């Protein structure tokens, strides 16, 4: 087991957003976190990287245990050094070129020599098909291109797992495909991924596990094939039906 | 205008310009540098929400923005000696101008910092940067660009504001115009002339601002 999350709780403004979420991730797993909006899936993902402080919960990463509420700054930096995070709205550094977006974390954050950082950056950008745009600024790229650069920025860090927070939700429909293609390719190469998404095709065909959440609790989790073929909970059946109907 | 007026103006020009270059401009540069340091510090303290210091910053801005610049000059130069704080006119002017404009600039900087999306900071943490690195490489450069027009405004306003130093005996460009006028009584001509020199300085700065904005706009929106 590479990553284990136990009993994550979180509230905002007196409202319980997460009411005890647990999850196990094996190396190479691609786990789709599904659920209606407001179910807490994004908050859950953000808690795992300490972008939100959980009220309680533990994280076991490569055998080391971390308190999701009380982790120290050092521990947080340590956990983050093993992960990458891809945001819904890309969050590329607006004042940096594509190349520097990818190298900044390496050169400034981890003191990788510049030449090596640039080689790693170019390699990562090649994997997402963005090596032609090294000197462009984010504002000169389409949403799909920006998201691919954001994925390359994560890849260059050599993470053990990549968290995706609704990576295609901010994209125009015709740009979703290029991002999903990159994610599918990463999955095939064995990257461990945790993906909050509304993309049912991705969840069904690329992910091997599904975690279905609603109102801060896990309704159902298991292999993707099972989940889509024979959803156990009434709420899961309803959710799949609504999503499929909405698409037609 | 009579021939005499023109003659007086022509004679005064090198003197006025000389004081402008030797006194007004250095006074502006020093005061602005001080204001820049103060404003960035005050803005960062508020942005980072440092508990007690934040209150101190709000208090400073409240006092400085709520009282006239001329009164502040008088207070520091004529008032403070009675409690044992004796400053020469020139440093007193630099201090007052710096602290005064610093309060306004701090608000411009704070607004600019707050306009940088939180996602930029979060992305910085996720690629392994610490707070200071994120500030230095991402947030401050972006905020500086946003604040640039407002800061240029402050600089231009300060060039003209330095004329108030005349009231605490600093012989800068305007004071020199007053002195010359005391001898020759050509108020209209001389004050028009000094106004024109201020205008020329500010025109130059406006042009520089334009250049600067073009340069900073490199990475688009």
List the helices and strands and how they pair.
The complex is a heterodimer of chains A (248) and B (221).
Chain A: E1 3-12, E2 15-25, E3 30-34, H1 41-48, E4 56-61, E5 64-67, H2 73-80, E6 83-86, H3 98-110, H4 114-127, H5 143-155, E7 161-165, H6 173-188, E8 192-196, H7 200-205, E9 209-214, E10 217-223, H8 224-229, H9 234-247
Parallel strand pairs in A: 3-8, 3-9, 6-7, 7-8
Antiparallel strand pairs in A: 1-2, 1-4, 4-5, 9-10
Helix pairs in contact in A: 3-4, 3-5, 4-5, 5-6
Chain B: H1 3-47, H2 51-66, H3 69-79, H4 89-115, H5 118-126, H6 131-161, H7 173-184, H8 187-216
Helix pairs in contact in B: 1-2, 1-4, 1-6, 1-7, 1-8, 2-4, 3-4, 4-6, 5-6, 6-8, 7-8
Give a short overview:
Chain A is of the alpha/beta class and 248 residues long.
Description:
The complex is a heterodimer of chains A (248) and B (221). By secondary structure, chain A is of the alpha/beta class. Chain A has 9 helices and 10 strands. Chain A has helices at 41-48, 73-80, 98-110, 114-127, 143-155, 173-188, 200-205, 224-229, 234-247, and strands at 3-12, 15-25, 30-34, 56-61, 64-67, 83-86, 161-165, 192-196, 209-214, 217-223. In chain A, strands 6-7-8-3-9-10 form a 6-stranded mixed β-sheet, with helices on both faces. In chain A, strands 2-1-4-5 form a 4-stranded antiparallel β-sheet, covered by helices on one side. In chain A, a hairpin with a 2-residue loop joins strand 9 (209-214) and strand 10. Helices cover 82% and strands 0% of the residues of chain B. In chain B, helix 1 (3-47) runs antiparallel to helix 6. The A-B interface holds A 49-51, 77, 80-81, 83-85, 87, 89, 91-96, 104-105, 108-110, 137-140, 150, 153-154, 157 and B 117, 119-120, 122-130, 133, 137-138, 141-142, 145, 218-221.
